[in-house]
Amino acid sequence: MTITATPMALPAVLLIEPAAFTDSRGFFLETYQRHKYTEAGLNRSFVQDNHSRSRKNVLRGLHYQLKHPQGKLVYTVSGEIFDVAVDIRRGSPTFGQWTGARLSDANHRQLFIPEGFAHGFMVLSESADVVYKCTEFYAHGDEYGIYWGDETIAIDWPEEQPILSEKDRELPAISAIAEDCLPVYQLY
Predict the structure, then answer these.
(1) Which of 32, 63, 68, 185 is catalytic?
(2) 140 belongs to the catalytic site
(3) What are phi and psi of 38, to 5 degrees?
(4) Which residues have CB under 8 Å from 103's CB, separation 6+?
(5) Closest CA to 86 of 171, 166, 146, 164
(6) pLDDT per residue over 24-36, tens digit each?
(7) What are phi and psi of 63, to 5 degrees?
(8) Is there a contact between 42 and 3 (Cβ–Cβ < 8 Å)?
(9) Which of 64, 132, 144, 147 is catalytic?
(10) C-beta separation of 112 from 73 below 8 A
(11) CA-CA distance, 64 to 146, in Å (whole number)?
(12) pLDDT tens, residue by residue, 130-167
């Protein structure tokens, strides 16, 4: 397993490449083993697993929880996605910056998105099954989000006309979000 900071100067967001053992039958890999992840510096307790299935060009996000912030370990069990993290922590030296990675069932990559970051992904294959482990439980009523096409963040999405939920279509730009509705920068 290798863990590296993602490009675009967001060192808190980690790209993880688990060791996959492949032979003529297929492959085997550990998607998570607490001891190994802790030894590698990713010392988080995960309390909830989520699984979503989406079709091509669906974009989910950019979402976050404020009072119950979630760190997320994201991977794809089938298909391919473009996974994105945006630093939305007030006072952060990288506020408003983003990073992204292609995660697929072929490359087995995972992306760790820490608390205080908005998260979203776009499906690149015909469909994709995405699993993510969360460090905090989902809290109804603590749902926030940022418009996927916010020009000040300028994410380089692979598709310019994604399929969005009504809720995601109506999300505000980061500049329209009140400061008290954004997380505060903390060192991890």
Answers:
(1) 63
(2) no
(3) -65, -45
(4) 74, 75, 76, 80, 81, 83, 109, 110, 111, 121, 130
(5) 146
(6) 999 999 999 999 9
(7) -115, 155
(8) yes
(9) 132
(10) yes
(11) 9
(12) 999 999 999 999 999 999 999 999 999 999 999 999 99
